[in-house]
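Extended Data, panel c. Modelled sequence:
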Amino acid sequence: MTNDKQTRRKVEIAMEPVELYKILKFENLAASGGEAKFRIQAGHVMVNGQTENRKRRKIRHGDVIETPEAVLTIVVSEN
């Protein structure tokens, strides 16, 4: 799914795990939780190189989320 138009960035989370659809929503890759869930179910999201269709997939430090728009690397903030 990787292409030249994807932005790459690190996403800090305060605690883990976080549900996949919430990350898409808070990173503005979906306008709402419902849209995020639809995109996941439609197969537009990959986690660690594999298509993910579980909306509530638990995301942890080190996971990499790919969408057509972005590649997100998850890190835990050190607060």
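The chain has two helices and seven strands. This feature is highlighted in the accompanying rendering.
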